Amino acid sequence: MFENAGSRLKAWLVAGIGTAAALALAGVLGAFGARHEPMQLLAPTGRIETGQWLLRPLRAYTAEGENLYGAPLKPGARALVFEVEMTNRTAKSSKDYFDVLQASQATVDPSSKPFIVLTRDSTLSPELHPGMPERMAYIWELPGGSAPPASLDLTVIRKTYKQRDNLYGLPGWFNPAPAGTLTLPVGSGPDTADIQP
């Protein structure tokens, strides 16, 4: 009789401790969930700081043709283009801008990477020198037969400078995180005077 009572008491205690632990965990997770804030909406006409880069959005449009700023597009392909003025805010020339802008899945296939071109001379993925604003074009090739999007939705990624990283003890830009989202209307075609063969 006492053995049965002891077993029952033990089972209730274990169940009670398990329930209390589950409630505590749910409370902690709920508290973290409540702290999650929506991403900042960035002004499409303002300047955006990302740590390494100062960005000034210019325009977004779709265009067709093989010679769009010299980007190696397929013949007859349609492309989505985002032009932006970029200023390198660091002390060294850099081309660490491949992930500073991420197009939304609704706009382009997330597995497709853009061609990034210096518009003034059609140099593909150049190093940008410190303190010199340069006009760049991010060019995504759109799938054949797809309708051009009405808007371009981008997530802007920022990084933090650390004098020493935890792995190698060297300085650099680390911890990429979203700075906010940017939405621009998509026009049709570039100014032909801007395009360099």
TrEMBL record:
Domain of life: Bacteria
Keywords, alphabetical: Membrane, Transmembrane, Transmembrane helix
Spans traversing the lipid bilayer: 12-32
Protein name, UniProt field: DUF4352 domain-containing protein
Gene source species: Mesorhizobium amorphae CCNWGS0123
Lineage: Bacteria, Pseudomonadati, Pseudomonadota, Alphaproteobacteria, Hyphomicrobiales
